[in-house]
Amino acid sequence: MIAPDTAGRGVGGDPVPAGALPARLDADGIGWGVAGVRILAGVALTAEPGATVGLLGPNGSGKSSLLRLLAGLARPESGRVLLDDVAVDAIPRRALARRIAVVTQQVATDVEMSALEVVLLGRTPYRPRLAGVGAADLELARRALAEAGLAGFEQRRWSSLSGGERQRVDLARALVQEPDLLLLDEPTNHLDIRHQLDLLRFLAESASTVVVTLHDLNLAAQYCDRLVLLYGGRVVAAGTPVEVLTTSRIEQVYQVRTDVDIAADGRPRIWYRSHAT
Amino acid sequence: MNPRVARSLVSASGPPGSTRRDSPPATGISRNGRYVLPLALLLLLVTIAAAVSVGSADLPVDSVLRAVADHVGFPVQPLPALPDSIVWDLRLPRVLLAALVGAGLAVCGAVLQALTRNPLADPFLLGVSSGASTGAVAVLVLGIRIGAGPVDLTTGAFVGSMAAFGAVLLLAGRRAGEPTRIVLAGVAVSQLFSAVTSLIVISDAHTQDTRSVTFWLLGSLTAASWPSVTLSAVVVGVGLLVCWASASALDAFAFGTDTARSLGFSPGRTRVLLFTVTALMAAALVAASGAIGFVGLTVPHAVRFLFGSGHRMLLPACAVIGATFLIWADTVARTVFSPQELPVGVLTALLGVPVFALVMRRRTGTP
């Protein structure tokens, strides 16, 4: 098996896991609305196998809705979503759950489950309906928690975790699904800056294909291979960070004036001008 | 093993321990079950034996065991006819029915609370109990007959429950899988059937009928018999199995419909299936014993407090502890004011509210 690495990634020479091939994602002509309000129109998005694609756009631009459609959680009114050239809505739910994992924005819940039990939910697509949790699943969940920086948190109740800890437990839950495609909706919410950087580095190095919605333009510029900029439910720009994040386009979409430098690593850096000037 | 998991999410340069707030307390909520559940099961067996021996004629536990062994077919010295009849025909069916009703209601409550993500959900959420009372009152007061014989109370109650649940599904319409919709429909239908019940009672008020209806509505296990035990056992057994098979889905629902779906579950279909199964269970149990309140509401909260809310452990634990709780409640109900008998529903409410308050106070959950 060959790791479809892009430049600058896979520095550590990590092996590609058996049975987990990064998927190619193609979405085309996506249209969607709720109660007569058009939310997405003619949206196209492609993620090469193993790539990390950042989804940007102001509040209400349709990022979360697009992510739900890409995940197969809702069916688009028009257009299609293909996972390795197979329509997502033609894949049975359980099989899909072994290929796509989703980290949604947090749902308020006061469930009395331990962190380990929550992570183990990620193994249910692999388990026969009445089977108990196996030793291998348990080991995988423990390691995922440890790698999310939550070693020793196995028996902590969900209700006693902070927002950032819950976010990382949820990520560990998605990872044990061993997804070919990982979709994350504003995963940096609740995380302090160090955990934001850790998370994005992790996503960039991850072997699976990643589509992630982000608000921080500089984080997106630094860690994503490609960016897709949404505005009013349409794609206004798609390409490498340098192609997408230009002064004029940021002003058009966010109504914010900026200066954009290109750093030594070839990535854009955005400097915000204060409103007064 | 997945190397993607192995790749660290935490930078190696980060100070060790900075990701940990403090050393976490070993709550071990999921591990509790491994030791407590067999213990609870043992307590249930002891409870059954003790409850059968207690009553207006006290019988020692060894006579109880002898009578049971005799009927099951072991070669033991049989009891004299009267005590034997008290054990086998009166008390044992009643205690077993209490166990089954308690188990079934607690499981229904736990499942409905998870499905609707509403801590106040109980087995009678979907109109089952008001439908049952309408059916029972209609039979009792109006004397409805089918063919030659009069319809009995149990059948009337069951038909009423099913009519109410049918009305709920009809009102909720095609999107019955959405919890808010079905809960609202349940509230509306409950009100409707309560109104109809009152109307029937007022239109034809024989005080004697009304009193026996009231007693039955509050819940009572006096009508226990072997056929009702057998029927309840089948219903509770099958119902528990179906709910238990959906344990992982119920866990996932706590994190919202999208998460459940992304984990490979079909939330709409699962909800409709489990709403139907719990309605059938509750209807059968209400038909056997009336609407015994608070068991289905309180026991799941108390059990969640002990075992956590993972449903693989929670549902069997609810069954065992719900059964034990209702046996004790019924034993007290029939002995304390002997020979007068309290409706067991009054007692479950009296015991249930303090338990509920205690659980609420000690809950560590976020507001």
UniProtKB/TrEMBL annotation, chain A:
Keyword Cell membrane attributed: no
Keywords attached to this entry: ATP-binding, Nucleotide-binding, Transport
InterPro entries: AAA+_ATPase, ABC_transporter-like_ATP-bd, ABC_transporter-like_CS, P-loop_NTPase
Pfam families membership: ABC_tran
Keyword Transport: yes
One GO MF term: ATP binding
Domain of life: Bacteria
Domain ABC transporter: start-end pairs: 25-257
PANTHER family from the UniProt entry: ABC TRANSPORTER ATP-BINDING PROTEIN, HEMIN IMPORT ATP-BINDING PROTEIN HMUV
Protein name: Iron complex transport system ATP-binding protein
Naturally occurring in which organism (per UniProt): Micromonospora saelicesensis
TrEMBL record, chain B:
Gene3D superfamilies named among the record's database cross-references: ABC transporter involved in vitamin B12 uptake, BtuC
One Pfam family named in its UniProt record: FecCD
SUPFAM superfamilies listed in its UniProt record: ABC transporter involved in vitamin B12 uptake, BtuC (SSF81345)
Alphabetical keyword list: Cell membrane, Membrane, Transmembrane, Transmembrane helix, Transport
GO cellular component: plasma membrane
MF (Gene Ontology): transmembrane transporter activity
Record's bilayer topology term: Multi-pass membrane protein
GO biological process: siderophore-iron import into cell
Species classification: Bacteria, Bacillati, Actinomycetota, Actinomycetes, Micromonosporales
Annotated transmembrane regions: 35-55, 92-112, 124-147, 153-171, 183-203, 223-250, 271-293, 313-330, 342-360
Organism: Micromonospora saelicesensis
Family to which the UniProt record says this protein belongs: Belongs to the binding-protein-dependent transport system permease family. FecCD subfamily.
Subcellular location: Cell membrane
Region (Disordered): 1-27
Protein name per its UniProtKB record: Iron complex transport system permease protein
